[in-house]
Specification:
The complex is a heterodimer of chains A (296) and B (56). Chain A contains eight helices and ten strands. Chain A is an alpha+beta fold. Chain A has one domain: Toxin ADP-ribosyltransferase, Chain A, domain 1. In chain A, a hairpin with a 6-residue loop joins β1 and β2. The longest helix of chain A has 23 residues. Helices cover 20% and strands 0% of the residues of chain B. Chain B starts with 8 loop residues before the first helix and ends in a 28-residue tail after the last helix. The relative contact order of chain B is 0.08. The chains are: A alpha+beta (296), B mainly alpha (56). Chains A and B meet through α3, α4, α5, α6 and α8 of A and α1 and α2 of B.
Amino acid sequence: MPRSGRPEPYAVDADLGSGTKASKAAQVLDVDLHEARSEQRAGLKDLDAMVESMPGLTRMQRDRERLMPRSTTAELGDERMARRLPAPRAVRKPISARQRNARSKARLEVQRSMPLTQLGAQYELVSEPQRWSELNDQLSAATGDVQALPDKDQEQIRRIDRSIQSYERANDRGHVVYSNVRMPWYINPGNVRGFLQNNFKAGQQVSFDRYTFATHQLHEAAMLADDSDGRTAVFEIETRRGAYLGASDKRDVTHHLLPRGLDFEIVGVSEAPFRYPNGRLGTRMVIQLRDTTPEL
Amino acid sequence: MAGPKTYSPEFLESLRTQSFEFHPDIAQQTAPLPRRADGADYVAPGDEPAAAESDD
């Protein structure tokens, strides 16, 4: 007798579980709860739109009132500096030394002029695992409403937001970045491919209330999360947002911090091949996303 | 909850010229990556050696 499916309708939230910097933790949740969270998120974005249309406020005042950070990305320097999602079966390769050097140089220039309070707030987020969890878990619980957090945490989050915006302001490049996501433990590894294809359908929307740790190279993301049980997939994200936190070509480190409060459209799910710097090949299940966060 | 840390201005100034990155605890949160017998690096569990150059 065939096994009956899960009786209740369910949804998957890829950003809901308490993950680590190495990987987001997807969670299955009740459809009604998922919809309620989506509506709450949309309501928060409406409030941000109202703040933007309120007369008599300076940009700084608006930023303080907003619940989610605005995009501050500079114009694309040249169409060649845009980065597009690769074809599903294309081999993902390490990025060039020139790319790494340019991104690292821009990063250091931004860091040199950034207020120390912002630099410290960003440093703590990326270097203290417990702080990473505390801030992100609170953001997720509040579906991104920063004003629901204690004052000190709000202050740190706003400083982190501004530190990312400083980089965005100076950045005229596009990004394709990679971030791991673990499927729930009760998904049989043999079913992960089907689970991904059924629950991450092209055209659907995914929202990240948390900050997202990413890398510019698929092999680097693959090294961050042990996938020996086959439950880790990787988001491949086309975006203009976020700050490069990697090194120059001296080291194989291309970390990237994406801001909170982002929306994406799912482009597709596929098994993607990638190449390590030493020439070996690997594969990961990849969920391609395109940034659709409204410019408010 | 701990709340934000306070760093000395000297320490923060030193960050201006560093490419500080995500703490190496990332590696400790997951199982250690095995090394290949031939000493090659950068191989995640389950990834096979390249059979041949193919579609690039």
